[in-house]
Design brief:
Largest sheet: 4 strands, parallel
CATH class: Alpha Beta
Number of strands: 4
Helix content: 40-55%
Order of helices and strands: HEHEHHHHHHEHEHH
CATH architecture: 3-Layer(aba) Sandwich
Distance between the termini: 13 Å
Number of domains: 1
Radius of gyration: 16 Å
Structural class: alpha/beta
Length: about 200
């Protein structure tokens, strides 16, 4: 039996304070709210970078799983400009690129409905945090614990080679490529993701 703790990022729900434009800033905020270890972190995209950063803190972390996360997550300058000036307009390409081309309509609806108004307003900070953070491989290497790096075979936001570089940073990391999935495998292939997480957690 396991306890699942799902913290909200600052600035992503009402009353959660201001968002951050650095991965370290988000990691500091999350670290203050985590329960006592042992802990296995699971993070998607920016959340994966935050999880890597959290391994540098003395929190009793036993393992880490990242989804749609790479060694570097450079963001297109045009998208950054749109996110800064009119964040709501930045969401259309982000949602489009978050799913593979053959994603079902209900998956598209699920992705759209899962985004709060506050998260839309925080999108520029989130993208800035992603594009300016390059410490994930070093954090993973120093951590040295079990790590599972999961990437969709059709991820249009994080190139597969960036996930491969992240996995290569640690001899205890394993790369898993999920077929027929884009940047959000937890939406497009949920059963596979649940199975991967369950097997990882029960093995630790």
């Amino acid at each position: 039996e396991f306890t699942v703790f799902t913290p909200d990022l600052p600035g992503h729900v009402a009353g959660s304070g201001a968002s951050h434009d650095t991965v370290a800033g988000y990691a500091d905020a999350i670290a203050d709210s985590l329960p006592e270890g042992p802990i296995i972190l699971v993070g998607h995209s920016l959340g994966g970078l935050i999880s890597c950063e959290l391994t540098a803190r003395d929190l009793g972390i036993d393992g880490i799983i990242t989804l749609g996360t790479g060694a570097a997550m450079t963001v297109n300058e045009e998208l950054l400009t749109t996110a800064r000036n009119t964040p709501v307009y930045a969401m259309a390409p982000i949602r489009k690129w978050s799913l593979h081309r053959d994603a079902a309509e209900d998956q598209r609806a699920q992705l759209e409905n899962s985004t709060s108004h506050e998260a839309v307003e925080a999108v520029f900070d989130d993208l800035t945090a992603c594009t300016t953070y390059f410490d994930a491989p070093a954090r993973l290497a120093t951590f040295g614990g079990p790590a599972l790096i999961v990437i969709g075979d059709q991820d249009r936001m994080v190139p597969r080679e960036q996930a491969e570089k992240l996995a290569a940073a640690s001899p205890t990391a394993r790369l898993v490529i999920i077929e027929n999935s884009g940047h959000t495998p937890q939406i497009t292939q949920p059963d596979t993701v649940v199975s991967l997480i369950t097997n990882f957690v029960t093995a630790e």
